[in-house]
Specification:
Layout: H1 17-32, E1 37-41, E2 45-49, E3 55-60, E4 85-88, H2 93-108, E5 117-121, H3 123-138, H4 145-164, E6 169-171, H5 181-185, H6 195-205, E7 218-222, H7 225-230, H8 232-239, E8 243-245, H9 249-264, H10 268-283, E9 289-292, E10 311-312, H11 314-375
Parallel strand pairs: 4-5, 4-6, 7-8, 7-9, 9-10
Antiparallel strand pairs: 1-2, 1-5, 2-3
Length: 376
């Protein structure tokens, strides 16, 4: 068994009401017309981008040590904290909200406030990703190449927007978006976390043992055709030494694709039964855990389903890695600030001493000029 800390968490974490209410405003705006919208949260305020592009103050918080981390990265930046996170929205607003809930949850677990973040949600991009992720299932073929250029360029624009907004780290809480992670992260001047690397690293740290003698540790992956064909989960897991087990063609055609179709027809009971079969078909192949790499299949099984103990939501790993990065960067900035202050103090003391010596020389020369003529 793997460590419980990496098991799937499918229930919605408890988020402050003001947080969800503010974000839902963005969801409403997204439905009205395809505008570029952003949600901004910091240690001092929670703001919401309107169609005019201006930010209004939604909720005040008490001051904190994060205020000392302000940096002038750009005069046009929305946020300047050194641990600001930039988030490119996923295939749907709900999947993005789910990740934000995880971000708040894992931050609050250690009684710390959530790091400042900027969210970029574009309904037009959501629709393109949805077509890439779901519509390819209906035709039984993966059609990523013909939209690769358009989606890649769109994602790069989002990355540039977040960098300009003051982000110091970028994440994409969307499985299919990672098919373009290499293109989008190329030339990025700040860290750009990869969900596959995050989950593979956590599995490696769990020190799993093979379930069959003579074999390696096996990890199963359940996802759509598009995500599996992109191959990034397989690549990142294999880089950590794991054997990757995927659904065979029959399972994809008769279990996974029908699961998505059942969800589209709001047949939750049928989707649950099919998903259970898909998970069991991987477990009988001696896998230690099953990665559910699909936003559509998240939340299908009830939280008390015993099969979930063997399943992993990669977005949990991405959220934990994001929080870890934010805390580390904040501590590093505080350390550098303290060292800079320590170096500045001796310089200030030397400057004061020099001024004192110069003043003393002036006073001494004045006294000498007055005393010597008097004695003569």
């Amino acid at each position: 068994m793997f460590d419980g800390s990496i098991s799937m968490s499918l229930q919605t974490p408890n988020c402050p009401p003001f947080f969800l209410s503010t974000v839902y405003i963005n969801k409403t705006l997204s439905r009205t017309r395809p505008i570029l919208s952003a949600v901004v949260q910091s240690s001092s305020l929670l703001g919401q981008s309107h169609e005019s592009g201006s930010l209004h103050e939604s909720r005040k918080f008490p001051g904190s040590a994060a205020a000392s981390l302000l940096r002038s990265k750009s005069p046009d930046s929305l946020l300047n904290q050194a641990n600001t996170i930039g988030i490119i929205g996923g295939v749907s607003v709900s999947s993005t909200l789910n990740f934000l809930g995880k971000l708040v949850w894992y931050s609050a677990k250690d009684a710390e406030e959530c790091p400042p973040f900027v969210v970029c949600n574009d309904p037009a991009l959501n629709e393109e990703l949805f077509h890439a992720s779901v519509h390819s299932l209906k035709s039984k073929t993966v059609q990523l190449d013909h939209i690769r250029g358009a989606v890649s360029q769109n994602l790069r624009h989002k990355r540039a927007f977040l960098e300009q907004a003051g982000a110091r780290c970028i994440v994409m809480p969307c499985h299919i978006s990672h098919a373009w992670h290499g293109d989008v992260s190329e030339g990025c001047s700040i860290p750009f976390l990869h969900v596959g690397e995050c989950v593979a690293k956590e599995l490696k740290e769990a020190k799993l043992k093979p379930l069959e003698a003579g074999s390696g540790v096996r990890i199963g992956v359940l996802a759509t055709d598009a995500t599996l064909s992109a191959g990034f989960y397989q690549e990142k897991l294999q880089n950590q030494g794991f054997e990757v087990v995927l659904p065979d063609k029959a399972t994809m055609e008769h279990v996974i694709i029908p699961t998505i179709e059942a969800l589209n027809h709001r047949d939750m009971e049928g989707a649950r039964n099919l998903l259970r079969i898909g998970i069991q078909l991987l477990l009988v192949r001696a896998v230690n855990a099953v990665i559910i790499g699909s936003d559509e299949m998240q939340g299908v099984l009830p939280k008390d389903d015993p099969l979930l103990k063997k399943c992993i939501d990669p977005m949990d790993a991405l959220a934990r890695s994001t929080v870890t990065w934010a805390r580390s960067n904040k501590k590093l900035t505080l350390l550098l600030d303290s060292q800079s202050s320590a170096k500045q103090c001796p310089r200030e003391q030397s400057s004061a001493l020099l001024q004192f010596k110069q003043l003393w020389k002036i006073l001494f020369s004045v006294v000498v000029e007055r005393i010597i003529p008097t004695q003569r």
